[in-house]
């Protein structure tokens, strides 16, 4: 009996090798894409945390630097007169939300959005009050994956103008 060999097709071994090569390439591509997407989520979280914390620092700096007087400072809060013609003083305070979470409030309004939370908050002054020290840590709120977490500490000393 004579066997005829066809030269027009692929053998089973050649097909299996091709499938294995494509499977390895597909797996590598998937791993790379997942890494890129996680990196993008982490970068977005870091940007959000930095923007929120920077915004709080900017608001506090602008209002305190040009205030006419600081009437009380202590207990993680500072009370000041924002303008000479303002009848009511303004307050920046670290408010404990419970469970180790805080927010900085300006009178009763929170200076941060719902997307972030503070894990520490300290407002202090030196005597006589010529500067206000602000120190807080902001982190992304409600992240399911460790790769999406972002935490940044903010610290500044706000020098007060119009002081003798």
TrEMBL record:
<dbReference type="InterPro" id="IPR045584">
    <property type="entry name" value="Pilin-like"/>
</dbReference>
<keyword id="KW-1133">Transmembrane helix</keyword>
<keyword id="KW-0472">Membrane</keyword>
<feature type="transmembrane region" description="Helical">
    <location>
        <begin position="12"/>
        <end position="37"/>
    </location>
</feature>
<protein>
    <recommendedName>
        <fullName>Prepilin-type N-terminal cleavage/methylation domain-containing protein</fullName>
    </recommendedName>
</protein>
<dbReference type="InterPro" id="IPR012902">
    <property type="entry name" value="N_methyl_site"/>
</dbReference>
<keyword id="KW-0812">Transmembrane</keyword>
<dbReference type="Pfam" id="PF07963">
    <property type="entry name" value="N_methyl"/>
</dbReference>
